[in-house]
Amino acid sequence: MKVAIIKYNAGNIYSVDYALKRLGVEAVVTADKDELRAADKVIFPGVGEVETTMKFLRASGMDALIKELRQPLLGICLGMQVMCRHSEEGGDVDCLGIFDTEVKRFVPQKHEDKVPHMGWNTLTETNSGLFKGFTKEEFVYFVHSFYVPVNEYTAAVTDYIQPFSAALHKDNYYATQFHPEKSGGVGERILRNFLEL
Predict the structure, then answer these.
(1) Does the pLDDT value for residue 135 go beyond 90?
(2) Where is the active site (predicted)?
(3) 21-45 burial: b if 16+ Cβ within 10 Å, else e
(4) CATH fold of the domain at 3-196
(5) Conformation bin of residue 106: beta by default, left when phi > 0, alpha when psi is -120 to 50
(6) Per 3-state DSSP, what percentage of the chain is helix, strand, and coil (rounded to 5)?
(7) pLDDT confidence of 94, banded at 50, 70, 90?
(8) What's the whole-number mean pLDDT along residues 5-9?
(9) Hey, where are the domains in the chain?
């Protein structure tokens, strides 16, 4: 099985590569469009900022490529947010539009609401192949200041300040707001489920 990790101007890409190695999978980290098209599975991870990421994807033609891929693709954190239609980050940015929904800024409602939402939180209402074998609420690791509201593509829910989409799914596109590569055994199970889709 060929697994490709999209290489672009985002941080934290290699931690996903290390997580896959722990599962015995040698992925290729690449910006080569032919390699990405030929992969059996594609992962679009990242930590960073939406506006500069979208500029990079448009300038490189990666925006069109990501939208034409037909194999299972997993977006992680920034990768998930960029796959939405629009983000409030960076003064309002139009994104890839794979998921017809918006990315909103967390607004604290009370003193103890800290932004970014950082640390372990539970997944509920899981309804995607990513969560095959889950029988109870599981903890995963988050670091984010922006969120996707619950919508028709929501594949898991987490509550912080308000309920939000912890995961999305549409056709061959899957996405998680949390970091499976930093979520211990639960995260490894999610990555393994993705590889088995």
Answers:
(1) no
(2) 77 (nucleophile), 179, 181
(3) eeeebebeeeeeeeebeebebbbbb
(4) Rossmann fold (3.40.50)
(5) beta
(6) 30, 35, 35
(7) very high
(8) 91
(9) 3-196
Separation CA 14–CA 144 (nearest Å) = 19
Rg (CA), the chain: 15
Task: Enumerate the active-site residues.
Answer: 77, 179, 181
On whether the CB atoms of residues 175 and 129 are closer than 8 A, the answer is no
Structure tokens of 69? Answer: 């891929």
Q: How confident is the model at residue 156 (pLDDT cuts 50, 70, 90)?
A: very high
157: tokens are 């829910």
The string over 109-120, giving b where at least 16 C-beta atoms fall within 10 Å of a residue's C-beta and e elsewhere, is eeeeeeeebeee
Helix (H) or strand (E) holding 75: strand 73-76
| Unique residue bearing structure tokens 């954190």 | 77
Q: What is the pLDDT of residue 10?
A: 81
Asked whether the predicted pLDDT for residue 170 surpasses 90, the reply is: yes
Average pLDDT across the chain, whole number: 96
Residues composing the chain? 197
The amino acid at residue 177 is: Q
Q: What is the pLDDT of residue 90?
A: 82
First to last CA, the chain: 12
Q: Where does residue 105 rank: exposed (0-12), middle (13-18), buried (19+ CB within 10 A)? A: exposed
